[in-house]
Amino acid sequence: MAWRLAVIGDPIAHTLSPLIQGKIMEKLGVEGDYAACHVRPEELGRFTEYARENLDGFNITIPHKSAVIPFLDEIDAYAQSCGAVNTVRVRDGKLCGFNTDGDGIRAALEQMGAPFAGSRVALLGAGGAARSICRKALDCGADAVRVFCRRPEQGEAILPAGSRGEVLPFSALSAETCGAWADIIINATPLGMSGTAADFAGFSFLDGGRPAVCDIVYKPAETSLLKACRERGLVCRNGLGMLVYQAVYAFRIFTGLSFDEDDLAVFLLRRGLTSRGEGAGTAG
Predict the structure, then answer these.
(1) In a 10 Å sphere around its CB, with 0-12 CB exposed, 13-18 middle and 19+ buried, how is residue 41 labelled?
(2) Residues designated catalytic
(3) How many CB atoms sit inside 10 A of residue 191's CB?
(4) Which end of the chain is more exposed for a tag (fewer CB within 10 A), N or C?
(5) Contact criterion met (CB below 8 Å) for 214 and 236
(6) Is the CB of residue 31 less than 8 Å from the CB of residue 24?
(7) pLDDT tens-digit profile of 76-93?
(8) φ and ψ at 161, to 5 degrees?
(9) Phi/psi of residue 102, nearest 5 degrees
(10) 3-state class of 2 per DSSP?
(11) What's this model's pTM, rounded to 2 decimal places?
(12) Are 40 and 11 in contact (CB under 8 A)?
């Protein structure tokens, strides 16, 4: 069987997903095609109807992760709790939504030696990616989550009622509230991303402790945040690990095939991507 897969977003030219999914199929000896499709918000309904008849599955990136939900026939419990979908499986014309972002960041952190369980997590940002990360951290037994964001109401929305978490304004980001408090710091904002003029005003919030830091941005390979971490001797990674792991989990959902997810992800990170110069030297 030749799998018919795609990723949609607006914009979409930056995506590494076709490269990653192509290498997954190559490694597993599977035939298929994975296309990047530029889908504007007003075209989302039309695309999902096309997918019912022509695709076996598709991934979703900004800005469609929540907007796609009304067009789906089913959604799994975790994606429902996140209010965001990044993976859609198509079977017999029915669309079923999943979210692999949470497991992507969980696995990437475990590869860094920084599991959620028993950790205090400082989460920067409260957008779609932050929502799935926050839910996964709490589900995996994080002691507490602090969400730093510019709109408190958005931060409150990503914390489940009665959860072990609190929301602080982004302006409160400091060594005392973040670096000295957290075991893990995750940047889930676009600050420092290629094509985005905005960046962190400073990095003193990293001081006071020895947190592991993950920046979910992967272009550029070394953001200013990661550079500041390395100068401080902190364990840190960019978002390539999360991207690869969520892609591996998505491929299993698309196909139902059985394979060792960790072995495949490590292959992609150590050889499959670096052989093309994408993210070279950034993943462990």
Answers:
(1) exposed
(2) 65
(3) 19
(4) N
(5) yes
(6) no
(7) 999 999 888 999 999 999
(8) -60, 135
(9) -60, -45
(10) strand
(11) 0.89
(12) no
